[in-house]
From TrEMBL:
CDD domains: DEXQc_UvrD (cd17932), SF1_C_UvrD (cd18807). The keyword Lyase does not apply. GO terms for molecular function: 3'-5' DNA helicase activity; ATP binding; ATP hydrolysis activity; DNA binding. InterPro entries: DExx_box_DNA_helicase_dom_sf (IPR013986), DNA_helicase_UvrD-like_C (IPR014017), DNA_helicase_UvrD/REP (IPR000212), P-loop_NTPase (IPR027417), UvrD-like_ATP-bd (IPR014016). This is DNA 3'-5' helicase. ATP binds at A30, G31, A32, G33, S34, G35, K36, T37. It catalyses: ATP + H2O = ADP + phosphate + H(+); Couples ATP hydrolysis with the unwinding of duplex DNA by translocating in the 3'-5' direction. PROSITE patterns: UVRD_HELICASE_ATP_BIND, UVRD_HELICASE_CTER. PANTHER family: DNA 3'-5' HELICASE, UVRD / RECB / PCRA DNA HELICASE FAMILY MEMBER.
Amino acid sequence: MRESKNYLQDLNPAQREAVETLYGPLLVIAGAGSGKTKTLVCRMAHLVEKGIPPEKILLLTFTRRAAKEMIERASLLLKRDFHKVTGGTFHSLCHTMLRQYGTLIGYSPNFTLLDRTDAEDLFNLLKTSLGLSDNKKRFPKKDTLANLYSKTLNQEKSLEELLDSEYPQFLEFLPEIQRLFVEYKIYKKEHQLMDYDDLLLNWLEILKNYPQIRDEMGKRFHFIMVDEYQDTNTLQGEIIKYMASTHQNVMVVGDDSQSIYRFRGANYRNIFDFPKIFPQTKIIKLEQNYRSTQPILDLANVIIANSKIKYTKTLFTLKKEGAKPVLFRAKDEAETSKFVVDKILELREKGIKLSQIAVLFRSAYHSYELEVELAKRGIPFVKYGGLKLLESAHIKDLLAFLKIILNPRDFLSWNRVLLLMEGIGPRTAEKIIQTLKREALPTSLNRILGLSPSHELKRWLELYTTIKPYEEESPSEILQKIWYFYEPLFQRIYSEDYHRRVKDLEGLFSLVLKYKSLDEFVSDLLLEPLEITELEGETLDEDPLILSTIHSAKGLEWHTVFILSLIEGRFPSLYSLKNTDDLEEERRLFYVAVTRAREKLFLLSPLMVYLPGEGKTFAKPSRFLTELPKTLYEEVNYTTPEEKSSHIKPVTENYMNTHYSTELSSTSSFKIGDFVKHPHFGEGEVLEVMGEKIKVNFISKGPTILHLKYTQLERLL
Ligand SMILES: Nc1ncnc2c1ncn2[C@@H]1O[C@H](COP(=O)(O)OP(=O)(O)OP(=O)(O)O)[C@@H](O)[C@H]1O
């Protein structure tokens, strides 16, 4: 919805108060769909209307795209240019500031950013050089080490405490891990590298130790606004404290019930601690929801009412009418997919655009079955939240080339680049790197060429020494040159699927055209990794249906929302079941999913799912479903349109229970002597039937007791 010129009059009293409170600390607790984005946009416009120059405003958001959109909306509102507002993520702010002020702590302006996999590779490298990978087979792997390191910084826990609670099997390696972490820090500093956490840590260090920088920041950004405050981490909370210390003009907006990034270090307590850091804080709650109908909100309110710590708020709406959310418990995922696709087609016939419908899920793989069905029935869709572009090897290759152009001392990237070349293995790569460490290019050119006869190395070094990233060449010209060199290597290395991969590269080539500096291009790619779908840009006849993980659906809304796989072990996810805090986060995730729907909500919970190694297995309905009073939703039975003309019928008794028990009794009708087949253990003979349990003598593993409820056996004779 576009704001009108009389934007203040469009606001409700709470929103208006938030917009008109310009000075001092302000905490806005905004329920889902209560107009927090609208409030931020209007406040930004109001600041400028009151004479504040846009360059004095800092807007921190969860994604760069969100900041850009808000700034555009504010400028439309006042019909004024807002491009001087500084908007972006915490990481991008810190990155910009460190390029400018990093020299204070020993970093040159062209330091290199390490993404997560680079950080893991560095751990591997150091592990080998410290001799920790050879003898100690059970030493933690590189991803565990990177994860642990990041957690020690973000969770205010010592390494020992973290190991004790999460990886007790590695406690015996405490001194070695500690040493590794020290080496990791030294290496980064020596080679001008910063990982994602360093961006926050280093900027915070400068803010803490240099009062003159705090003053400078206070003058530069006289008004600070932070969106999605519930998903900031402890370091980000501290950065805000220092950035606003001279004037305290800081507004943060968030919804504690929508905090879903704990697993990445977010600390939802930040929102509760804000008034402690800024004792003058004014708190405003936004509780009127403009998005969903009352029946959807009733469900959402019950879900979150069970949360342990929260700012109590109850969402209400003036949209009282509306259909109750629908629960459908299909026989299996195939039936779920058919149901979802039939409903989507029905909605499309009623005039709802596909792009106004979203299918949400906890993990990207939950939609695989549905994707097949959609493809079969010719429904166009895009999927968000899957693989990030940066995780694909070919993009990492290209980035490595760009990174060594920007920072010749980025030896991690040198290593990747060298290993791509024919005739160069790890030992030669190491020799070349040692030479480069002693003597930079082009002086060391002949010495390096003497280390390997590889033609590709020769071609690369000749090209490398001619590229001048900080002078006349544009980022797109540089990328073209690299591609010219890399293309034959790319076709050789990825010979099986380079046709598919080349599509991502095409996207990258169109993206680079927008950039004037190579440094900015590389930093942006690393700071906000694009999803593959964002680059595909295929032209379709019709806007596609949205498939998305719930994390990627944050902040968005659709006419109709389907939520898949509401079963134990999937949603809530398996890893969360042991820990109350993780389980709480899953609940909030469910709340986020439900509150994305404007008019219609479908909850899907199949009775059986396919588990690798287990075959088809009975599924337990999600605890989030069983907690809900039955009056809040309508459970439906379903037969496909081919089977019946009226395809949805309300269920009179509890469909799930009856259906479930019939399946059970039919499976328990085995008798002694039956030959059966198990998807994992293979064939065997029934020795004993004990109620819901059965004892089978498998050819592969001998007598085994199985629980019929959780296993799938097929009778062979
Ligand atoms: N005062 C208002 N009058 C009419 N519509 C409003 C008002 N405030 C917000 N809306 C509408 O409500 C919807 C939700 O608003 P918005 O996206 O700003 O919510 P949000 O708080 O950011 O949601 P969430 O946190 O759930 O993502 C939008 O369509 C917006 O235009």
